[in-house]
Amino acid sequence: MKLFRILLPLLLTFVVMISFTQNAWAFCGFYVAKADSKLYNQASQVILARDGNRTILTMANDFQGDVKDFAIVVPVPVVIQQEQVNVGDPKIIERLDAFSAPRLVEYFDPDPCAPTRFERPSGQLSNAAVPLAEAPRDRSSALGVTVEARFSVGEYDILILSAKESNGLETWLKQNGYRIPRGANQLLRPYIRQNMKFFVAKVNLAEFEKAGYQFLRPLQIAYESPRFMLPIRLGMINATSEQDLIVYVLSPKGQAEITNYRTVKVPSDSEIPVFVKNEFGDFYKAMFQNSYTDEGKKVAFLEYAWDMGSCDPCAADPLSSEELKKAGVFWLTPNVPNNVFISRLHIRYTRDKFPEDLMFQETSNQQQFQGRYILRHPFTGEMACDAAKDYQRSLKERFEQEAQTLAKLTGWKVQDIRKKINVVQIQPTPWWREVWP
What pTM, to 2 d.p., does this model score? Predict the structure, then answer.
């Protein structure tokens, strides 16, 4: 077993181990499937609930292995006290993921011969740890390391450290049982220069076993600081490939933006062939990678931005007030509608493309956006009118446009896409459908 691994490689953490088109006919669509964080093997997830200078940070733990080997070191802007730390509910992150995930919706063409007023889709969305052994005071002092606080919360034992220089901090961590990877000294130095502190957490095995937990629960930290940031550089120490980070920013104002890297919207509202319904995961991964490459591999993608009180279409129900509190929202007022806006940002990064930590800002922009991909099923019933002939002729052109769109989004070969479509000829509805609809 390796002595050190990254727990949240896309995060602010480094972990140490010890030992639609304008010419379309359509009715209202409905949600079919979603592309959530489970698509990515190494996707870390963070919730940032922010209002003014106040922040509650929730870190999802995707650690796999013996919990006795778990430890994290997280740069934080201030000294954290015991009452500022909480052990969260992992289901909250799952709920946010499901609610905000990019989604697939489908529409069904009406009978072109029916005397029905067809509505054209506008393409716009409606508003509808064993405690650490304490090093001798004189040794810590000599190394320039100060234990600012020491406490336990739930199944975690926690230290808050400050340091005067990175060599001393690295030495202190090693003397206290940590195996620090090569390059840590250099990455620790900027945080020490910024006078940041270090949140160190290990599992208290006795508490963990007594509670009967099967998995590590997320840690939540509340603090006040004018710096709205997410340190990610330490998480790159052992990174050997591209990392995925999904950040859910909850704000009472509007969209959150990353200020030191470009933020672009993920491609959305594209009509694609209906066979993608059975291949949505493969489609979204290919589409995201293609967009990531086209943007030079150094942007953040906005996948969702919406008022938490509604959704259209809904991939999952909006979170209740109680669930929002569990997600860190601290500004809710009883008997008042929720004023929570969610921004889902997806960052795929490597050490060379993201040399700086992520810096955020709150905005008052409440424009709604979602990654949404549209399937339009052709009408397959009997058609006997002049309009039907025009409709059938239009389908071949439509299918070709969908194939070209899918190829552009994903980089897939258009010839292969055309073969999969294979639905140019419209067949009448089988007679038994009239009996068993």
Answer: 0.83
